[in-house]
Amino acid sequence: MALLEVENLQTHFRTPSGINRAVDGVSFHVNEGETLAIVGESGCGKSVTSMSLMRLIPEPPGRIAGAIRFAGKDLLKLSDREMRAIRGNDISMIFQEPMTSLNPVLTVGRQIRETLMIHQGLDQQAAEAHAIEMLTLVGIPEPKRRVREYPHQLSGGMRQRVMIAIALACNPKLLIADEPTTALDVTIQAQILKLMLDLKSRVGAAIILITHDLGVVAEIAERVMVMYAGRKVEEAPVAELFRSPRHPYTQGLLGAVPRLGSSLTGAARRLAEIPGQVPDLRKPITGCVFAGRCALATDLCRQYAPGLEEKAPRHIAACHYSAKGAIAA
Amino acid sequence: MSPPLLQVNDLKKHFPVNRGLFGRKSEWVYAVDGVSFEIARGETLSLVGESGCGKSTVGRAILRLFDVTSGQVILDGQRIDDAHPSTMRQLRQRMQVVFQDPFSSLNPRMRVRDILAEPIRNFGLAKSAADLETRVTALMDTVRLPREALNRRPHEFSGGQRQRIGIARALAAEPELIVCDEAVSALDVSVKAQIVNLLQDLQREFGLALLFISHDLAIVEHMTHRVAVMYLGKIVEVAPRREIFAAPRHPYTKALLSAVPLPEPGAQRNPIILGGDVPSPINPPSGCRFHTRCPYVFDRCRTEEPQLRSAEGEQWVACHLDALPA
């Protein structure tokens, strides 16, 4: 059985100009110890999906429907109290901006201890010792001194390490990482990605990685789900997705990324553009969500939304013409 | 060979940090500390490096958005760094800028028409009202925005479209040099590709020189002619694109390039993981500024600062190693 099963997740927001269908009928699962990447551009609903899993969406104006089964329990049916026992304990989360997600007036040690004392019932001393252990685990030098420091005394990369230490303190079964390296410089990003890979093999938590960076996806994901305009448009094992993307949007995304080393192979080609804009999610969309920007779109696409179909083993995509698309790629 | 369009000689910019009682100036941030380079007409030079390396400060010093601490900036034979305000006004027409954030760099109260007309009026480029109108509509065509959009205000556009407006505004003055300060960094992948392609087309069409400031090495490789790599206020390596990406010489350049994750699952790579963080530019390390993180560090690096020297042809590297790692 999968660790996490999400069925027909719909997260809508009421706005003055209509209902924003930020996530509109998304289903997926995560197996134990697996790394699933959710990829897409701004506004595709990837972050709203992750916030919905943690039930961090304010209701109202938000409204979450569907089912989120974690280890057999539907998180949407739990009381707030039961949900609090899960957050930070069974499921924890790392955000993009470590400066805004750490409390500036508490020492990092206190922030790690807090999780341990609440969820694991450790006393002050045991929690302190475990906090130092966690800082050592995430590769912070001089952990005994660092536990007494405040977030502003640490660099961006160190703060993200502290966030990871807090997230992993209670040995969660699932770690949700929302753009964990986007705010970091590339040499620091390399450190953090390596750390996440090392810790994954040691701690064995499943990871949902949310990112727009296809390089990061290729580096650490096992399976990838591509979102566009609040829907899942494609899902496949990582190598398969990069080798033969079936959805025209995924193909467009992969073509639009310049690759390091392109000048050496003489492949100084023009970058592929995806023309047009993401549709307005406040208006109901008939037909395929990508039809307005798709080169292959026909009347069929504009009238009938394609369902997710298995195009190859474990590879699903929502496109009427994906067989054709694969050849065009 | 014709003289370069832009010449920067030993540019320094130090910012005071107010510390202590009554905000006495007791410390300095050595944001840019002795940087020299040239840009030819129609050429793209990229400044790359991580946060705080001083790349944006170099761009702003060239535009003279502030006075420099020392050094020279010369545009087509004329000193910019000590130019009188009236001369500066004339020089500004020849160099324009596109900023990173298209949301904060356009005046939300102005219509697109007025945003584009302002530089044309300021520099007296239009002969008549009709000429002004022709120029403004031509700019919209150039950046591939619909002419009807002229009467709309910035908030009605998406990020990519706003960046097109920002580019049109820079082009309105008919400049020879455009400083692009992280001009595509805030954009989504698919829109980024549109803007990168547009910049390349415009460069070809108008023979523009670009100073492309970016931390995104793949984009830089895609569109640049030459690259200067900065670390803590200094240039550590400068070379034509092919040399930098095929055979980086400076240990920092090597680490930087190897750290970029490739969009190829299972790609065989051995990233050089640098330990630690970038030191503070308030108290930069002695000797070579990279010595605290360099895997090849030896005694001389800690005391003596390496100067840029020619490694091969047009490739210049600031490193003490005799046999630079290839």
Topology:
The complex is a heterodimer of chains A (329) and B (326).
Chain A: E1 4-15, E2 18-30, E3 35-39, H1 46-53, E4 62-70, E5 73-74, H2 80-86, E6 91-94, H3 98-101, H4 108-119, H5 124-137, H6 143-146, H7 156-168, E7 174-178, H8 186-203, E8 206-211, H9 214-220, E9 223-228, E10 231-237, H10 238-243, H11 248-256, H12 299-303, E11 309-312, E12 315-317, H13 322-328
Helix pairs in contact in A: 4-5, 5-7, 7-8
Chain B: E1 6-18, E2 25-39, E3 44-48, H1 55-62, E4 70-75, E5 78-79, H2 85-92, E6 95-98, H3 112-122, H4 129-142, H5 159-172, E7 177-181, H6 189-206, E8 209-214, H7 217-223, E9 226-231, E10 234-240, H8 241-246, H9 251-259, H10 299-303, E11 309-312, E12 315-317
Parallel strand pairs in B: 3-8, 3-9, 6-7, 7-8
Antiparallel strand pairs in B: 1-2, 1-4, 4-5, 9-10, 10-12, 11-12
Structure description:
The complex is a heterodimer of chains A (329) and B (326). Chain A contains 13 helices and twelve strands. Chain A has helices spanning 46-53, 80-86, 98-101, 108-119, 124-137, 143-146, 156-168, 186-203, 214-220, 238-243, 248-256, 299-303, 322-328, and strands at residues 4-15, 18-30, 35-39, 62-70, 73-74, 91-94, 174-178, 206-211, 223-228, 231-237, 309-312, 315-317. In chain A, α4 (108-119) crosses α5 (124-137), α5 (124-137) crosses α7 and α7 packs parallel to α8. The longest helix of chain A has 18 residues, at 186-203. Chain B has 326 residues and is of the alpha/beta class. Helix content of chain B is 31%, strand content 23%. Chain B has ten helices and twelve strands. Chain B has helices at residues 55-62, 85-92, 112-122, 129-142, 159-172, 189-206, 217-223, 241-246, 251-259, 299-303; strands spanning 6-18, 25-39, 44-48, 70-75, 78-79, 95-98, 177-181, 209-214, 226-231, 234-240, 309-312, 315-317. In chain B, β9 (226-231) and β10 form a beta hairpin. In chain B, α3 packs across α4 (129-142). The relative contact order of chain B is 0.14. The interface between A and B is large, with 47 and 42 residues. Chain B: It is found in: Cell inner membrane. Chain B: Belongs to the ABC transporter superfamily. Chain B: One of its GO terms (biological process) is transmembrane transport. Chain B: Residues 6-257 form the ABC transporter domain.
